[in-house]
Amino acid sequence: MCQGTKCHTYNTQDRLKGTKGNKTFQTRRRSSFYYGKGNFCSLNCQNDWFDDFGDRAIDHFGRLNEPKHLTEENAWVKDYDWRGGDNDRYYYYLNKITKEQRPLTQEQFNDNNYTITER
Ligand SMILES: [Zn+2]
Question: Which of 5, 60, 61, 107 is the most buried (most CB within 10 A)?
Answer without folding.
Answer: 5
